[in-house]
Each structure stands twice: as C-alpha cells, then as structure tokens.
Amino acid sequence: MRRFFFLLLVVALFIGFAFLLAAKLQMKKEGIMKIKWFGHACFLIEGEDGTKVITDPFDESIGYPIPQEKPDVVTVSHSHFDHNAVDLLQGNPEVVKDAGETEVKGIIFKGIKSFHDKSKGGQRGTNTIFVFTVGGVRFCHLGDLGHLLTGDQQKEIGEVDVLFIPVGGTFTIDAREAQEVSRQLNPRLIIPMHYRTQACNIGIASSDEFLKGFTKVEKKTQWQGNKESLPAEQTVLVLEYAR
After folding, report:
1. Parallel/antiparallel/unpaired status of strands 42-46 and 33-39
2. Region of residue 133 (phi > 0: left; psi between -120 and 50: alpha; otherwise: beta)
3. Which of 22, 65, 115, 141 gives the lowest tally of CB atoms within 10 Å of its CB?
C-alpha cells in the first residue's frame, strides 16, 4: 500500500513538472516583453527582440530621474514640456507624434486625435492617443486625455490589452472619469499614470481615488510577460517608478 501511494506521488510530481516545463517552453516560444514606468506618462515597452518604445518623455522639472535608455521609437502625445523631452533621451530615436498611421521597426503606431480638455482644445490644445501592438499585445496610451471618449474614438482605438491612463485630474481626466474611460475600453490590464507621487507634486491627485473603483489591484516594479500571461480578469497594475 505504501509503495502504491509512493508511486502515485511520483506520478503526480512528474505530471506537475511536465506542465511547468510546457508552460515555460510556451512562454519562451511566444517571447517575453517588459513594461517599465519612469513616472508621469513615460513608459518603456521593450519587445522580445529588444525593440524599445518610450512614451511621453518628461524634462527635469517634473521630479523623476531622466530615463537612461536608448529607445528606437518615442511617442509624443502633445508638445508640453512634461511629455515631449525627446532631446534628453539617449540615441537618435524615431519620433511619432501625429494622428494617422506610422510604421517604425515593424510596429504600426496609430495616432487618434483627441483633446487635452473638455473644450475641444480651447484650453490646452490637442492630444494624440496612440495604439500599437508589440508581440501580439495591443497597447493604448491615452496621453493627457481631457475628456471621455466619443463613440468614434472608441471604434478607432478598438480592442485593448494594456491601457495606460491618466488618473490625477487637473490637467487630464480625473479619477472618476478615468474609471469611466476604463469601462469604455475594457482592457485586460490597466496601468494608471500622470498622478502625484513622492517624486512628483505638480498639483495633481494621487491614484488612490481611481484605485477605489476596482476590485483587483496589484503592485509591481515592472511587468514582464506576453499575450498569454495577461490576466484573465481585468486587473489594475500600479507600477513603481524607476529610480
């Protein structure tokens, strides 16, 4: 009898190991990418092939360290100092900043016109939403969106896996509006941005009120994974800014 249970244990361990190995092999096959937050609206999305995309780089006045990365592509949602400091980055990246489609390094960036306020740009001008796919994962960066999305904008954006969304208010949508935009787009992973932290205090709110609207919230230093490793249940991921 003991030998029988011992054999069952060995078989169970073998099956478990086989499943784990298969999962690792599948992950390797599909490739690993990473997302890192530098603060404010600036992220690094690095594909499995090493292609680096940086969004909305800021200048020194914001309070965060300038990213020490050499990106291939930089997206700029609008021409304000806290979103367009491309010259402070290393290398000579391709800059994407307009509405329409632009292909760089095999990645198609779709820019969608929106506004920085609720007055159709009358207060703060226009803003470009960027949608692009890396490693099968569809990203949407809302920049300094200042209003709820129209039906046409939702259609243009389409299906979203990972959403970068401003939540701090004052210069963008606030916590309640960000919750509504999240419902409009219904992504699998929501990453809040453009909110007050210990390093950045420019008259915007923290992420606390926004997070109250969600049941599943996680915190990490960065995200690593692929399409298959995205959460099945919608999750808000709060990233620590890179120091």
Report:
1. antiparallel
2. beta
3. 22
